[in-house]
UniProtKB/TrEMBL annotation:
<keyword id="KW-0808">Transferase</keyword>
<keyword id="KW-0328">Glycosyltransferase</keyword>
<dbReference type="Pfam" id="PF02485">
    <property type="entry name" value="Branch"/>
</dbReference>
<keyword id="KW-0325">Glycoprotein</keyword>
<protein>
    <submittedName>
        <fullName>Uncharacterized protein</fullName>
    </submittedName>
</protein>
<dbReference type="GO" id="GO:0016020">
    <property type="term" value="C:membrane"/>
</dbReference>
<dbReference type="InterPro" id="IPR003406">
    <property type="entry name" value="Glyco_trans_14"/>
</dbReference>
<dbReference type="InterPro" id="IPR044174">
    <property type="entry name" value="BC10-like"/>
</dbReference>
<keyword id="KW-0472">Membrane</keyword>
<feature type="signal peptide">
    <location>
        <begin position="1"/>
        <end position="21"/>
    </location>
</feature>
<dbReference type="GO" id="GO:0016757">
    <property type="term" value="F:glycosyltransferase activity"/>
</dbReference>
<keyword id="KW-0732">Signal</keyword>
Length: 337
């Protein structure tokens, strides 16, 4: 066998080994650290927000839902959300957007309900305490902005609505006693690995293992619980610490369920209204719905829950190229309750 052929075969056989070895040779992505100036800036914001109060119970004005959009890419589904809010009285909702400063966001057109809805934002990183800070920033901005904000819904850039706005509004305010819709889990097999991801005894004494919880990153909180979050200093000191095991560390999925479970477990439903499909998840990411999967039947399936008392209101995650199909079925399927 001649030398050029041997070299060609050697190179060909080396490619699989290269793909296996490169991730181990290259250093892992450096975790994003929260700088002291950013921490102090947030602390000032949270202090101001923690002194706010709700609108008086005697007011004749209707309570509002604050929609908190968290994005580190682009707001691909703005046209669909614009339809969601279209023909809805503006006195029933507010919109706040936290966009990572390093992301390339296409500014919404002036006619969009999302125009001029951006809050002061800082950099974020997946599986990092910066996502907790971003959510707290959104909550603080909404608390300061309007005393009528009564529910606070955290939304992903890959999230779509599954019902019309009137359906969501009636569902949230149908009971006099408001509760937060946040997933709180205590029996998951990965609980211990996540608890010790910063070190075996690091979370003590503030967070003993039997009080540690996990859940979904996205939630709908009452104003009372939004205030609990922005007022917290004690648990934040633990959850902002860097992780040693990055494969088990998802601070944004741990902090909110743990804090609210410790502060007011009876005020939480313990389930989320955002549907996520974890079947076949890859690298900690849930299943992403592609255009060939999008259909009226899928919307119906995503709405279904294990309870007869509630329906899922949002779903994630969807690929940007699925937007045309979603827009095509918006009026006749998604917003037809």
């Amino acid at each position: 066998m001649n030398t050029p052929l041997i070299l060609s075969l050697s190179l060909l056989l080396s490619f699989p080994l290269l793909f296996l070895c490169v991730p181990r040779i290259l250093p892992p992505k450096e975790p994003l650290q929260i700088s002291l100036p950013d921490e102090l800036d947030d602390l000032s914001l949270f202090r101001r927000a923690s002194t706010t109060t709700a609108a008086p119970a005697t007011t004749t004005k209707k309570p509002k839902i604050a929609f908190l959009f968290l994005t580190d890419t682009n707001l691909h589904f703005l046209p669909l959300w614009d339809l969601f809010f279209r023909n809805t009285p503006s006195n029933l909702y507010n919109i706040y957007i936290h966009a990572d400063p390093s992301s390339k966001i296409t500014p919404p057109p002036p006619t969009s309900v999302f125009s001029n809805r951006f809050i002061s934002s800082k950099k974020t990183q997946r599986a990092n305490p910066t996502l907790i800070s971003a959510a707290r920033r959104l909550l603080a901005a909404a608390l300061l902005d309007d005393p009528l904000n009564s529910y606070f819904a955290l939304i992903s850039q890959h999230c779509i609505p599954l019902h019309s706005f009137p359906f969501l509004y009636k569902s949230l305010f149908r009971k006099p006693a408001m509760q937060s819709f946040i997933e709180i889990l205590s029996e998951e097999p990965q609980l211990w690995d996540r608890y010790v991801s910063r070190g075996e005894n690091v979370m003590l004494p503030e967070v003993p293992f039997d009080r540690f919880r996990i859940g979904s990153q996205f939630f709908i909180l009452t104003r009372q619980h939004a205030l609990v979050v922005v007022r917290d200093r004690r648990l934040w000191r633990k959850f902002k610490l860097p992780c040693l095991n990055l494969d088990s560390c998802y601070p944004e999925e741990h902090y909110f369920p743990t804090l609210l479970s410790m502060e007011d477990p009876d005020g939480c439903t313990r389930y989320t209204l955002t549907r996520v499909n974890w079947t076949g998840s890859v690298g900690g990411h849930p299943h992403t719905y592609r255009p060939h999967e999008v259909s009226p039947r899928l919307i119906e399936e995503l709405r279904e829950s294990n309870s007869s008392s509630y329906s899922f209101m949002f779903a994630r995650k969807f690929s940007p190229d699925s937007l045309p199909l979603l827009m095509g079925m918006a009026k006749k399927v998604i917003f037809r309750d």
